[in-house]
Amino acid sequence: MTELSLGGRNIVFLFGSFDLGGAEQQGLLLADHLHATHGADVKVLALDPRPGRLSHLCDQRGIPWKGIPFHWGLSRRWYYLPQAIAALRAEKADVLISSTCVPNLVSAIGRRLVNAKLSVWRQEDEGLLMNRLPLHRWAVRQPHCFISNSSGGRRFLVDTYGIPEQKVHLIRNGITLSAPLQQRDQWRAELGLPDNAPVACMVANLSRYKDHETLLRAWRLVTEARYGASPVLLLAGRFDDAAQRLRALAAELNLADSIRLLGPVADVSGLLHAVDLFAYSSRSEGIPNAVLEAMAAGLPVVGTAIPGILEAVGAEGAAFLAPVGNHAAMAEKICLLLENAPLRNEYGSILRQRAVSLFSQEQMFSASCQLIASALAALETPR
């Protein structure tokens, strides 16, 4: 079986909601490729009936979508779970591809009842929200195969749950940066930023699963350094459960004039081309899409020294990663780059080449389609 044999296959993608994060973005790219290039019948489902940016993008691409009422809380889980499994079964999928913790667990728990020919668990992080309790240990034994976007996620499944290595396939995220909708000078004018102002940004939803707090504390130290113009930090991303706390922290640190909370940004490419440096502070990640997009834009990256970010930037970028929670070390690395334009340019160029060679969409599409086709062939071959 080859990639071309995926035509006409019913392939269902399952997400936690129709909000757009890195996992949803990658899944939609693959769904669109399967539909547009290979003629697969794809559909996007989410464990939340409310529409969002993901469902809007599905409409733009002609991909059908459906929301399933669901709640994972202990008191309501066992009421909603049978209904979610019934909804998945009704899709009569040849292939069910789930992403992130709760959709992965729902898909795995219901695998035999859903009756998809192939069940694929996409591991998007290094075990966030997973545990060693019996339900999780049993569930991870159910999928036919796994895709991890990072070596750390792969190690998590193999080391924590004893999943055979040959079942966990490393397929890194694929990035292609869109053309900017606005140029650097337009972005800066819109935000009221002088052309000579040192500007950094982080693109990530303001969620407790990130670590914006360490970056804010680091930025307090950055603002005390001497520059020709006051440095500004732009935080782009959906205002999730950490937004109010981060606003309070910014006020406490007297950062009102040097931090901008932008909310969701459609023109990420334009934003990246308007700044001088990209920062990414987190405690647990696979390989963050936002870091890869910054690399593709040729930006130098300062981040947290966790395996997923290190895998993204490689050995050349390790010197610009700070220990988890160490705001002083992060500030030092930011200042080093803001004060040295030749170093920024050299490091950014290295990261751009790394993004092109290791994290292309073409590589992700090819590896994913080959895996789906070969796994289906193996399952459908009479024994």
Commentary on this structure:
- With 383 residues, this protein is an alpha/beta fold.
- The protein has two domains: 3-174 and 360-380, Glycogen Phosphorylase B (Rossmann fold, 3-Layer(aba) Sandwich); 184-358, Glycogen Phosphorylase B (Rossmann fold), CATH 3.40.50.2000.
- Helix content is 45%, strand content 15%.
- The chain has 16 helices and 13 strands.
- It has helices at 22-38, 53-61, 77-90, 101-109, 111-114, 134-139, 151-161, 184-191, 212-222, 243-252, 268-273, 289-296, 307-317, 327-338, 341-358, 361-380; strands at 10-15, 41-46, 65-67, 95-99, 118-123, 145-148, 168-170, 199-203, 232-236, 259-263, 277-280, 301-304, 321-322.
- It has a seven-stranded parallel sheet with strand order 3-2-1-4-5-6-7, sandwiched between helices. A six-stranded parallel sheet has the order 10-9-8-11-12-13, sandwiched between helices.
- Strand 9, helix 10 (243-252) and strand 10 form a beta-alpha-beta unit.
- Helix 9 crosses helix 14.
- The chain is globular and about 70 Å long.
- The chain starts with 9 loop residues before the first strand and ends with a helix.
- The model has no long low-confidence stretch (mean pLDDT 95).
Which regions have little confidence, pLDDT < 50, spanning 5+ residues?
Answer: none
Shape: globular
Radius of gyration: 21 Å
Mean pLDDT: 95
Q: Provide a count of the helices.
A: 16
SSE succession? EHEHEHEHHEHEHEHEHEHEHEHEHEHHH
Count of separate structural domains: 2
How far is it from the N-terminal to the C-terminal residue, by CA? 16 Å
Main beta sheet strand tally, sense and closure? 7 strands, parallel
CATH architecture of the largest domain: 3-Layer(aba) Sandwich
The CATH H-level homologous superfamily of the largest domain? Glycogen Phosphorylase B
CATH level-1 class of the largest domain:
Alpha Beta
Amount of helix: 40-55%
How much strand content do the residues show? 15-25%
CATH domain fold name of the largest domain: Rossmann fold
Strand order in the largest sheet: 3-2-1-4-5-6-7
Judged by helices, strands and strand pairing, the structural class is alpha/beta
Number of strands: 13
Domain Glycosyl transferase family: 184-349
Keywords: Transferase
Pfam family, one: Glycos_transf_1
Organism: Pelobacter propionicus (strain DSM 2379 / NBRC 103807 / OttBd1)
